[in-house]
Amino acid sequence: MADNWNDEELGIQNGQFSPIVEGGFVHVDGETHILNYDTNVLSLDQDRQATEVATAADEDQPQSSYYDSEEEEDVELSPDGILDEETIGRGMTNLGRSADGSQQVYLHTAIPGFSLKDISILANYIHLQKIEMPYNEITDLSPLNDLKYLLILDASHNKLTKLLDFSPPKNLQKVDLSYNDIEEMTDLTPHHYLMSLVLDHLCSFSNLVQESDNKLKEIKGLENCKRLTKLSIAHNKIDKIQGLDNLPIQQLDISHNHLKKIENLETLDRLRTINLCGNNIRSLKGLEDHDLMECIDVEDNEVIDITEIKFVKGLRMLRQLNLLRNPIQELPDYRLCILFRLQNLTQLDRHKVEVEEKVAAANMFNPPLEVIASRDHIMHVVYQFLQPSRVWDSTLPSVETPYPMLVLVGPQGSGKKDLAMKLVDEFGDYFGYGISHTTRRPHQEEKMGQDYHYVTLEKFEYDIKMGQFIQTYQYNSNWYGLQMESVECVAREGLACVVHMELEGVLTLKNTYFEPRYVLIMPLSKDSHEKRLRDRGIYSDAQMDYTLKRSDMYLEYNQEHPGFFDMMINSDDIQEAYRRLRRLVTDYLGISLTSEQSESGDDEETIVEGQQTQMGTRTWSKPSLPDSLSQPYTRGKTQSPVQSGRGILEEMSIKRRHSAARDAVSGYIPPLFEQITTQYPKTAPQTVEGQVGLNVSGDLRSFSAPVDKPLQTGEEEDSSSDDESDSTLSVASAGDMKSNSPDGSLHDGKGFNLPTDSVNPINLMDGKGTKKDLPPPLQRPPSQGRPGSEKHNILPPIHAVKAGY
Ligand SMILES: Nc1ncnc2c1ncn2[C@@H]1O[C@H](COP(=O)(O)OP(=O)(O)OP(=O)(O)O)[C@@H](O)[C@H]1O
Fold first, then answer.
1. For atom 10 of ligand 1, which residue has the closest CA?
2. 704 pLDDT higher than 80
3. Cα 294 to the chain's mean position, in Å?
4. Which end of the chain is less crowded, N or C, counting CB atoms within 10 A of the terminal residue's CB?
5. Is 659 helix (H, G, I), strand (E, B) or coil?
6. 633-640, Cβ contacts within 8 angstroms, sequence gap of 24 or more
7. pTM of the entire predicted model
């Protein structure tokens, strides 16, 4: 009869079978069918009408719902441990089609906790696909021999002594035999459809009180289980991982065994989850090369060394790692340390990884340059705040006119120190060398207080704490730093300060109120850079490698941060580099050189003005006001106008710094520290007239620093030519503009306060960007006496009122 049922009769709607089950009856569409417990087959009961609704069984329903009928409490089920029909019937769930599709049958039964010893009756229920019978006293599974459709078997918590010692149901896929008295794994070749095997806590049942010696010690017999994807053999006495070669295992649980190392997993290339908790493992070696691994649990082991992480570092899919209760937890900053090394983790030690932690880890162990610089800056500002306040009147002469500084930046061995010193030698009337402090020892040819101030680490640290530094940076285990006093010393002389430093130093400097011009001195040829380093004979191979790698970083930084450097000069040939730098500076200062002298090389060049060769005379470039910074300019004869100068962000940053500096200056109350402030000159070099700042106009910088190209043969290096516009730092000679002023003075009584259009370099160009004819520059009287502020009006004036005097 059942064979002829159509879907509707069977309660199948939309392909879903939804009968109403009540005890041994099934109600479908108002008809009641009787379940034949012997065969699982339903037959129609004409006399009964469905009255009550019972819950339809769900395939994944938990065991706890096996018995929920209170009315049947009185009945003694399976007395004497012999499984009976009543017990089975009550545990039946999941009515569905038989495997051949011809009948409606119950597919699942659950008979837990009946102290069953004899389950022979199960042999009659051939349609069962899933049997759950934990917490019994079963010793023999042979009645399952005939259950050829059995897929899932849970016989955990029984008294089985043999592993699957019944002739195999054809398709047995999932087996849980944990908590049995099985001492040894036997050959499971007959169960070659096995996908999941759980053998936890073997031999525990009869040894609840005392730890059994008979626990499973060896993994074996699985060689032919070619479909095994999950294996759990936790809480046994296994001391070696073996016998799993080439199995498709994805989940492996060997927790709480006696493992000392992770081995023989190389061929388990589908492994995704491994649980090794509660062993004696010290090293994570053996976990590498599992590309699909997502989750590793090694809680409660002996992992102590952070370097062990290297074995799981390459696991790109790894998301969860548990290292709780390992000695490694004692390491300082353990969590950030791990998160830095394993940046893909979403869970560590059972705790979700927060984004903030990842950022903190990166900032702690490999901070971006900007973070290094910000920290450095913060540190020095804080230490400065802790000191009595002091007015740096030479370097902070006015909030509107920044103190002129030139920073040569580049990798070690780029030759920037030599260039800086040479520049100061030649243009001593304009530039002074800002001497950094260092903890490194002087090289043979270096002199104390000339190349660096050489100090001990203790002294360096002391000076940091005394708030002396503007910036510091550790390079190759030596510390370098520029002290405020070093800059102030130069400023007091009325000179612009030239310093050289690594990129990190520049980043810090960019956080300060200084607004230097930055020239990247870059050896573009690796070979010549390496040769220069090697020729010095003082660097180890590792140091040279480090330096050469950093030179790539400089190039990248220049590419990625357009406008960060004002100019790049190739220093492969140091003579040529100096010529370019020199040229840049003369443009910058508005100093004219005769073409003859320019061609004659760096050593011979003489500064002239108004076509007169006279050492020490010069024309002055007109200082620009901040407003003029974003004016366009032409760069080189052959190039189309390129935007340069400050980017929008830089502009905004400068505005912020101006405003901060303005606030600082206006709120300054000196009397308390008069003795400190008065030991330094209160003002910068006094003469205001004809002052030249380095803050020459630039344009919006939308490209990385322009490279100052070497001159071609026949090309004139003449500041009077159009080449003047070659420099990013230069503007059309503003000295020409000053010809309107009889004495070349730009002073308006307060400092620089020229009408904007008079300093706007665009005004020097015609509409097409070519230079207009300009009036000849006025000759400036030759300098006399010692070089210094009184003669060289480089610095802007101090606003005494603003400074609080
Ligand atoms: N205050 C500073 N802040 C950051 N870096 C600095 C500072 N002073 C010097 N440096 C840089 O530290 C690096 C190491 O200094 P060192 O004197 O050993 O190099 P160098 O041989 O003079 O390099 P170069 O030939 O490029 O001038 C150099 O790149 C140098 O410019």
1. 501
2. no
3. 21
4. N
5. helix
6. 633/697, 633/698, 633/699, 633/725, 633/731, 633/732, 633/761, 633/762, 633/765, 634/722, 634/725, 634/765, 634/769, 634/770, 635/706, 635/725, 635/726, 635/728, 636/709, 636/723, 636/725, 636/726, 637/722, 637/723
7. 0.62
pLDDT at 692: 26
Q: What is the DSSP string of 392-438?
A: -TTT-S-SSSPPPEEEEE--TTSSHHHHHHHHHHHTTTTEEE-PEEE
**Between 3.60.150.10, 3.40.190.80, 3.40.50.300, 3.90.1150.10, what CATH number should domain 387-557+572-591 receive?**
3.40.50.300
Contact 493, 432 (CB under 8 A): yes
C-beta pairs of 535-544 under 8 Å, 24+ apart in sequence: 536/413, 536/443, 538/443, 539/413, 543/476
Counting other chains too, the contacts that 398-401 makes at CB distance below 8 Å and 24 or more residues apart are 398/751, 398/796, 398/797, 398/798, 398/799, 398/802, 399/658, 399/661, 399/662, 399/665, 399/799, 399/802, 400/625, 400/626, 400/658, 400/751, 400/752, 400/796, 401/623, 401/693, 401/695, 401/751, 401/752, 401/796
Q: Where are the domains of the chain?
A: 1-155, 387-557+572-591
* C-alpha neighbours within 13 Å on the C-beta side of residue 474: 7
Locate tokens 């459809």: which residue?
193
| Spatial separation of the C-alpha atoms in residues 372 and 183, rounded to whole Å | 60
Any residues with Cβ below 6 Å from ligand 1, and which?
A: 410, 412-417, 436, 471, 473, 475, 480-482, 500-502, 505
Confidence at residue 764, expressed as pLDDT on a 0 to 100 scale: 27
Q: What is the whole-number distance in angstroms between the Cα of residue 475 and the centre of ligand 1?
A: 8
CA distance 451 to 325: 54
CA angle (89, 91, 94) in 5-degree steps: 95
Contacting residues for 221 by C-beta, under 8 A, at least 6 apart = 163, 185, 186, 187, 188, 189, 243
Q: How many angstroms does the Cα of residue 423 sit away from the middle of ligand 1?
A: 16
pLDDT given for residue 760 in this prediction: 29
> Of how many residues is the chain composed?
805
Q: What is the DSSP letter of 449?
A: T
392 alpha carbon – ligand 1 mean position (Å)? 25
Q: What pLDDT does residue 767 have?
A: 35
pLDDT value for 220: 94
* DSSP-assigned beta bridge partners for residue 101: none
* Torsion region of 210: left, alpha or beta (phi above 0 gives left; psi -120 to 50 gives alpha): beta
